Model the fold of this input.
Amino acid sequence: MPPPPAALDAHLAEELELLDAAALRRRLFPIQSGAGPEVLIDGRRYLLLSSNNYLGLATHPALRAAACRAIEQYGCGTGASRLIAGHLDLHAAVEAKLAAFKGTDAALLFPSGYQANVGTISALVGRGDHVYSDALNHASIIDGCRLSRASVHVYPHRDVRALEAELAASAPGGRRLIVTDSVFSMDGDRAPLAALAALAEQYHSWLMVDEAHATGVLGARGAGLAEADGVSERVDVHLGTLGKALGSAGAYVAGSRALIDWLVNRARSFVYTTGLAPAAAAAAGAALDIIVAEPARRDALARNATRLRAGLRALGFDAGGDTHIIAVIVGDTRATLRLGDALRTRGVLAQPIRPPTVPEGTARLRVTPMATHDESQIDRALASFAEAGRESGVLR
Ligand SMILES: Cc1ncc(COP(=O)(O)O)c(C=O)c1O
Done:
């Protein structure tokens, strides 16, 4: 007889030790303030370069006020899934606003972007169908593809030729869905949306674009990369999150009325979950008004990102991407942790990103300025990077 398995805690302790030994163990640390340009940790202020609160809206007075009003009117929780008794007129109003913002017939709120991706992909394709997914898509897209049971074709990052070869070689029959991040979350580069739309049309495929990191940030009205690239109408499924530039929590899918009605019926992560909290929905609604009315926030973010990326490159860092997300690629996991620690000692929070979030050998700091940083803060960050780079051995 084989020996009995170890008790759960003993087993997990061993696994955690292995993570420690590989420098891959992650830990939570509590932040004592809102996601401003600086945050408070253990009573000390840190310059925050790891937040997706790109436009600084998470702490904006208009969002706070909208959230408070919603709590006064509806309470803190919806108390049920949307299809049972958790659908508020507030949800309907924010969905209508999102649809107008995205230029679609309809939109649907989800409690998170993770749920929106998992639920939408698995509602659109299934066994016998095909889904084509960029190799660097977000984990929630990967999980949605897996959960769908469709044949998953992972194409090399942004490689339109390889995607075309996959589309051409796929067995005929079944539905086809191409899915991509618009701005890639860990690399800060952009999907070739026009080329993907052309392939989708040529190969009778649907196109789904996750604008989690572009909503509020790119495009003349802040509607995302599809807007910036002039391809909005060629995208079948628009997805975005409310917890990043919109400063709230939750997510949306926008598209045709039929798409939204289908998701209401078939997206399990929508059907079987409690409706988005009133405060989150209301704050997102308030954020949309600011995003459309204040393009200067997008300009400030772009300026800060350009200054920071150029400064990092001038120091000798491998600072990739061409958006507000700057991937400072180090490669070695331990060296990446050393760089992060050395920055933290200097009062700068730029979090290391390690495998499995990014491919083996590409550990990095994911550096994200905000619209609300001023020039002196960006310059202070650069001075700290110069010192930390040398101290950690990442810069020679
Ligand atoms: C591209 C992308 N899609 C989806 C998500 C998930 O969104 P949420 O945090 O709302 O679950 C994220 C990040 O969190 C993301 O980067």
Summary: The domain at 22-51+295-392 is CATH 3.90.1150.10 (Aspartate Aminotransferase, domain 1).
